[in-house]
Amino acid sequence: KLLTGAIGKDGMVAIASRGASSQSMLTVYNKNHKEVFVWNCAAENIIAVAVSDNGKRAAVSAVGAENGELYCKVHIFDFSYSEPIASFTYADTVSGVQFLSGNRLLVYGKNVFTVVDGDKPVLEEDLSLNTLSRVYSDDDSHYTAAVLSKYGSSASKIIKSYDRKGKLLFETELPESVKGVSCNSTYVSVLTDNYVYNYNHKGELVGKSAVDADCLKPFTDGKYTYVYAMSGIQCYKTTAFSESVSEIAQSETASTESA
């Protein structure tokens, strides 16, 4: 039974599944579908997987229970070795792992946001007062955007941006509920119930456009920001304070036909 998986830039595929003689197992294949690494997880269930860009490392988050208490372990593997080269234990669930630049690894969950390099953390966000609401890490640039719920509130958010090494670039507050976040190396897009906000990595608001009530999630490619909705996909110019490009095109078409 497949549990989860990840695909690397070079075509490497990492798959977590139920093990024949273990609770779960990690299997990694190269771009030619050849098995290059296998690790059996005796006591925990793997819930998240990541593969490094160079195709030499993988990481997993695995959840287990001991004496009635849940715990979570993050293991980092180098394919030259049969066992983890680094392991970390967390009291809270780590729902995601993502390789950043080099061998740095982003580790995150509702109460966890950490960047590790080798066998030590190089960034640990204090989430004792705020909880992690949304995370988006761009696969190409490895820039990351995070949304925190201020004091656990659903209506007051903190937006943070990080570079490819996990260094904090900016932090700003937004007194609205956030549906989704996206970023690349230039911009951060934040979707709320009524608007999509676009920031540069200095934290400056460079664009804001009204969205439909059924909007679900944003995606930015830099020049344009797309918003996925139940009714379709809307396209906005990232650095504009206006209606959507799609709506403008429809309006121009309607004007031409009436003329």
Order of helices and strands: EEEEEEEEEEEEEEEEEEEEEEEH
* Radius of gyration computed on alpha carbons: 21 Å
Number of helices, counting only DSSP H or I runs of 4 residues or more: 1
* Count of individual beta strands: 23
Report low-confidence residues grouped into runs of 5 or more.
248-253
Shape: globular
Sheet with most strands: strand arrangement: 1-2-3-4
Largest sheet: 4 strands, antiparallel
Structural class: mainly beta
Fraction of helical residues: under 10%
Mean pLDDT, to the nearest integer, reads 92
- What share of the residues does DSSP label as strand, in percent? over 45%
**What is the straight-line distance between the termini?**
60 Å
In short:
The chain is mainly beta.
Summarize the helices and strands and which ones pair or pack.
Blueprint (H helix, E strand, L loop, with lengths): L1 E6 L5 E5 L6 E6 L5 E7 L3 E7 L5 E10 L2 E10 L7 E5 L5 E4 L4 E6 L2 E6 L2 E5 L6 E7 L6 E6 L7 E6 L5 E7 L3 E6 L3 E6 L2 E6 L4 E6 L4 E6 L3 E6 L2 E6 L7 H14 L1
Antiparallel strand pairs: 1-2, 2-3, 3-4, 5-6, 6-7, 7-8, 9-10, 10-11, 11-12, 13-14, 14-15, 15-16, 17-18, 18-19, 19-20, 21-22, 22-23
Model description:
The structure is a single chain. The chain has about 260 residues and is mostly beta strands. It contains 1 helix and 23 strands. The chain has one helix spanning about 245-259, and strands at about 1-5, 15, 25-30, 35-40, 45-50, 55-65, 70-80, 85-90, 95-100, 105-110, 110-115, 120-125, 130-135, 145-150, 155-160, 170-175, 180-185, 185-190, 195-200, 205-210, 215-220, 225-230, 230-235. The protein has a 4-stranded antiparallel sheet with strand order 1-2-3-4, with no helix packed on it. It has a 4-stranded antiparallel sheet with strand order 5-6-7-8, with no helix packed on it. A 4-stranded antiparallel sheet has the order 9-10-11-12, with no helix packed on it. A hairpin with a 2-residue loop joins β11 (about 110-115) and β12 (about 120-125). The longest helix is centred in the C-terminal third of the chain and has 14 residues, at about 245-259. It is globular, with a radius of gyration of 21 Å. Residues about 250-255 have low confidence and may be disordered.
